[in-house]
Amino acid sequence: MATRAIDSRNTVSAVAADDRRRWFRGQAFWLVAPALLLLVICLGLPLAIVTLRSFSEPQWGWQNYAWFFGTPVNLTVLQRTFAISAWVTLVCLIAGYPYAYVMTAVGPKMRLVLILCVLVPFWVSGVVRTLAWVILLQDSGVINSVIRAVGLSPVKLIRTQTGVVIGMAQVLLPFMILPLYSVMKTIDLRLMQAARSLGASPARAFAQVYLPLSLPGVYAGAIIVFILALGFYITPALLGGPRSTMLSTLIQNQVLSLLNWGRGGAMGVVLLIATFVLLALAAPLSRQPHKTGSRR
Amino acid sequence: MKTKIGQVAALGLLMITTAALAQSKPVAGEVAEGSLKGKTLTFVSYGGIYQDGQIAALKEFVDKSGVTLLSDGPTEISKLKAQVESGNVTWDVVDTGDFPPYVYCGKLFQKLDFSKIDTSNIPEGQISECSVPAMNYGVVLMYNTEKYKDNPPKSWRDFFDIEKFPGSRALDGSGDLSGGMIEQALLAAGGSVENMTVADIDKAMEKLKSLGPDTIFWKTGADSQQLAESGEADMIAMWTGRAMTAVKNGAKYTPAWQDWLVVMDQMTVPMGVKDPDAAHALINAYVGKSAQETLAKTTSYTPIHKDAKPEVDEVTAAFMTNTPDKLKLGYQQNIKFWVENFEVANEKWNALMAGN
Predict the structure, then answer these.
(1) Statement: residue A2 has pLDDT above 50
(2) What is the CATH classification number for the domain harbouring A126?
(3) Mutate to test the interface with A, among B347, B348, B352 (most CBs of A within 10 A)
């Protein structure tokens, strides 16, 4: 009797869910319409115009792309942009992964403190944070003063790629930690205990159980951080030197000071396509481990 | 008899025209009472203390003419281009950097009607078809007095001489190329600025690169000030306003005025503004003596009225560039050359900025 009751309740709820799904199929469009409209107007349309301009200014043709690939500095900077973004992603991952793990393991009060530590920098403008890094990293800055006081020789940090990577990683860290945390908190920690009870060492339990389960968070965080890093402008401009100029600075030059919107557009389109290609290459990587993980 | 009548007639005619001229000829700083009542002008500049000072300088004009003055910014030539292209120009008077009114004269900026602006008190060589100066300042060589105690650098030639004057250098990398700096680099490389060619730009770029990998290209005025106050670079090419503030804040730096680079902001009127006459009236008021004195007092930039005598403190006065002794030492870039070669020169400059 009791089981029957549960069964019927399940059937009722299943029917309700089915209804909802059917209703949803018809109405779904209207639910996403506002967001879609916003995307089309604020992203799709400008993107289309920029792409169009890259082919139409000053005349119709491939001239802007020919210029882009025919100018060595553009290629150097494009390559550098991807390299710096990759470094930033790696640094964020190394710093963010243990942090996100600790967030899942501590009590609710401590978790709140940890979440605040991630979010508070979010509320401070990027320029202010970058200027704070200038004061920390410069030759006569806080870090080098400490190094000198200890008796070591000072390190060149500001106006180097290292400085840029440090500054960018700090700004982007929340974008790594939050997706990681949202995946990690769903992982049942008893699985680790189970692995241990079956004789796995802590390292093996981590590598074969926890890590694969957390990979979706790693990929989500890495992709968000990497893509955001590609478009960084203020941090490399203030913390970097000429050898850490990123593509956005060159685009800004073309668009704002040379009024060459065709070339600026072409640079943007190249960056966009290069990003898509890279993501397409990374996509199979992100799917496979997840699949095998769930099969096990 | 005939001649006498002719003479009288001619004299009469002369008197009438003089009177008419006297009546319509503008006087810098003046505007007719209530002449712009009900009208609105939007003035665009770079914000901060500078724009506040400009608005303060225009207060008399606003009070007297009855115009409603709106303030917008910061100036972005790309935004102006978008306005002009779409035919909806909302910026009436725009303060720009030194090159744009030359590069985009007749395209984005109107040719000014100089029968409506009194330019008689503006320093020579600063007016173009599409602009009058908004203020003057300079790029000056500041050196660390503790580093170069007995043997201080005296000119840009020393700035570019790494062997005789070892130490790190910082230059203006904030935006468009600095024509004056490239010309100084060319001179230091043994070139000549007479009949400059594009190949000369390369020569100058090599000289700039020879300063070494530790050379700093500062991105903002605040950035350069920070370099001086923390002693990060031994010689810094600095805007005079920032140099002054750094010295006031205790930076141990002192200027070498030889060949300081003359720089100015420009006052312009975009193509297609709704009321060009009102825009001209604003500029005419802006270049007046008392307006320029207010501007100099509030911003510490150098006024562009020859007789302006702003009341400023000692350090500020030391960095004003309109005194006869400093005017003698100033260096004017070859604007014509840089405008003609604007794109190629910027491409080379940007490549240098990007580490190539």
Answers:
(1) no
(2) 1.10.3720.10
(3) B347
pLDDT exceeds 60 at position B160: yes
Residues A27 and A143 in one domain: no
ipTM of the complex model: 0.80
CATH architecture of B137-263+317-353: 3-Layer(aba) Sandwich (3.40)
Contact criterion met (CB < 8 Å) for B350 and A253: yes
CATH classification number, B34-136+265-304, choose in 3.40.190.10, 3.40.50.300, 3.20.20.100, 3.20.20.70: 3.40.190.10
Which residues of chain A are within 8 Å of residue B354 when distances are taken between CB atoms? Answer: 73, 76-77, 242, 245, 249-250
A127 in the same domain as A5 = no
Angstrom distance (rounded) from CA A129 to CA B41:
37
Same structural domain, A148 and A289: yes
Strand order in the sheet with B93-96: B68-72, B40-44, B93-96, B253-268, B132-144, B235-239, B169-172, B216-218
Nearest chain B residue to A156 by CA: give it: B214
SS3 at position B109:
strand
Rounded to 5 degrees, φ, ψ at B189 are -85, 5
Q: Is the pLDDT of residue B16 over 80?
A: no
Q: The domain containing residue A9 runs over which residues?
A: 1-37
Could you report how far apart the first and last alpha carbons of chain A are, in Å? 36
Q: What per-residue confidence (pLDDT) applies to A125?
A: 85
Q: Which two tokens stand for residue B307?
A: 């007789």
Higher-pLDDT residue of B123, A19: B123
pTM: 0.83
Average pLDDT in the B157-183 region? 93
| Subunit contact A140:B231, Cβ cutoff 8 A | yes
Q: So what's the pLDDT on residue A275?
A: 92
Shortest Cα–Cα distance, B205 to chain A (Å) = 14
Q: What is the mean predicted confidence (pLDDT) over A114-125?
A: 88
